[in-house]
Amino acid sequence: MNAPLGASASRAGSAGRVGPAASVRGLEKSYGGPRVLDGVDFDVAHGAAVAIIGANGSGKSTLLRCMLRLTEASGGEVALLGSEVSRMRAADLRRFRARVGFVWQRHNLVPRLSALTNVIHGVQARMSGPRTWFQALAPAEVRAEAMACLARVGLADFALRRVDGLSGGQSQRVAIARMLMQRPEIVLADEPDASLDPQSGEEVMRLLSNLARESGLTLLVVSHRLEHTLAFSDRVIGLAGGRVALDLPTREADAGLLRGFFDAKS
Amino acid sequence: MRNPDAVLPAPPRFQHRTIGEYVGILVVVALVVSSIGATAPDLSALGRGVQRLFAPSGLLVQMFPPDFTRIDRIAIKLLETLQMAVAGAALGLIFALPFAILATDRLSPHPLVRIVARALIAFFRTVPDLVWAIFFIIVVGLGPAAGVMAIMIDKIGFAGRFFAEAMEEADPGPQDALRAIGASRAGIIFSAVIPACLPSFTATSLFSLEKAVRGSAALGLVGAGGIGVDLKVAFDLFNYDEALAIILLLLALVIAVEQGSSWIRSKLI
Fold first, then answer.
1. Do A95 and B178 touch (CB under 8 A)?
2. Strand order in the sheet with A186-190
3. A132 near B CB under 8 A
4. Helices and strands of chain B, counted as H and E runs
5. Do B176 and A104 touch (CB under 8 A)?
6. Residues with Cβ < 8 Å from B108, sequence gap 6 or more?
């Protein structure tokens, strides 16, 4: 319980980091009409920061949701951290999800509760019961870890504030603190900057990128802003027509080429 | 180009209706008129009845002044009525929550469980509390216990429905976030759903208490305890002045509970 933040990285390290952190093979998804994902294939190495780009409706968010089976894929295979996610039973999947941090477009915090209580909810990845529901009931070590997570996102002074009184950027940072509380080994982020003003969006992306780098976490982030893609990733995967149409290191990416992915119609 | 100052013709006052719609309107009117004709008192009988009320030996004259000589006994029975309402509403609210969770789409463990839970809530709500009181008098005998049970079942139906509706309408985002973390069903319910629904739950609970206080007086009329028993006895023995005293004190109790619950609502919500 008192493991330092970033313990996840050492845990991943101790596991030997055999194979890719994420492996997607022939992933397909259809909502009844044309396929949103039509055979997506890629691997992601441990510790990589990958930006997934594409036009609106190109299946970026669906891809992330299918990787964690928040949406069931129509076909294909996904392995995360060496575990075959596609074949897990419900109970195993629930336990496995604890190892994967997910940052949402909207912060998805519980509005009437304090920032501290929302962060403490992240411990439900490895604990259950009433002690994880409210900060008043939480054990001292959980409260201390949650405060440390809030400090890492720069919001320790806002611990007892209700989150419905925080700004969009602050709320997204609390959501990142909740994700840190989870002690994830890989982070999937679905346009965490989408609902924020440009400055807050950049702050949130920089925070997420720095935290991932400091802790050695693998980061897959769906991005809809070119400047964030270039600044906060070391590899870009572009989706078009439900398939991977671009996959190259960010330093080799041409801004004009990337812009085409943002502007293209799905 | 259209002149912006030109006066536009007004639309027709009534839209054209189909024959079917006219038939429907006629059926509704016929139903209302025939129902009034079959059941409402005729005006002359009503007039005679009102005259009797104000006659020297009439009900209203005999009611005044109200007789408070047995106020100690009335106060004890009023307290019992309040206790019945509080106990019945509290037990009903406690049991309404699990019923409502099982009846909510996103939280129910299985569609069949959801259907059964919804059917039970609808059944509890549909059967009047007086019928529940008669049922529980047969089960547990005359007295306040039957009243408490009747109120409890009635409130499971009332609050269960509103609790379930509030949980259906709760923002699914925080629930999805906790599900993605790997939180348990209980964790999601108590961490995300109930905190989000707390204002609605509080309002429903306070309305339940008000409804229980009003209803608990009537339950005594069938022998399920509380002040209703004394009110029925007072009428049966033609002690109309004492009956008026009971009605006035009951009115004061209901107003006090409603005011108290309004104050709590304004503070909490």
1. no
2. A100-103, A186-190, A218-222, A49-54, A235-240, A243-249
3. yes
4. 12, 0
5. yes
6. B101, B102, B114, B117
CA A258 to chain B, closest CA, distance in angstroms equals 30
Q: Do B178 and A124 touch (CB under 8 A)?
A: yes
> Between chains, do A95 and B173 touch, taking CB under 8 Å as contact?
no
CA torsion angle B14 B16 B17 B18 (round to 10) = 180
B142 Cβ neighbours under 8 A, 6+ residues apart: B223, B224, B225
pTM above 0.90, yes or no: no
ipTM of the complex: 0.85
Q: Over its length of 266 residues, how does chain A's per-residue pLDDT go in tens digits?
A: 333 333 444 334 434 566 899 999 999 999 888 889 999 999 999 999 999 998 888 899 999 999 999 999 999 999 999 999 988 998 899 999 999 999 998 889 999 999 999 999 999 988 989 999 999 999 999 999 999 999 999 999 999 999 999 999 999 999 999 999 999 999 999 999 888 888 888 999 999 999 999 888 999 999 888 888 888 999 999 998 889 999 999 988 888 888 877 776 54
Question: Any idea which architecture A46-69+100-263 has in CATH?
Answer: 3-Layer(aba) Sandwich (3.40)
Cβ–Cβ below 8 Å for B173 and A102: no
Half-sphere exposure at residue A255, Cβ-oriented, CA atoms within 13 angstroms: 6
> Rounded to a whole number, what is the distance in Å from the CA of A167 to chain B's nearest CA?
17
Which of B198, B228, B223, B202 is CA-nearest to residue B213?
B228
Q: Domains in chain B, ordered, with CATH?
A: 84-268 (1.10.3720.10)
Looking at beta carbons, which residues of chain A come within 8 Å of B192?
110, 121
Residue A53: helix, strand or coil by DSSP?
strand
* B184:A111 CB<8 A: no
What chain A residue is nearest to B199 in terms of C-alpha separation?
A112
CB pairs under 8 A between A and B: 71
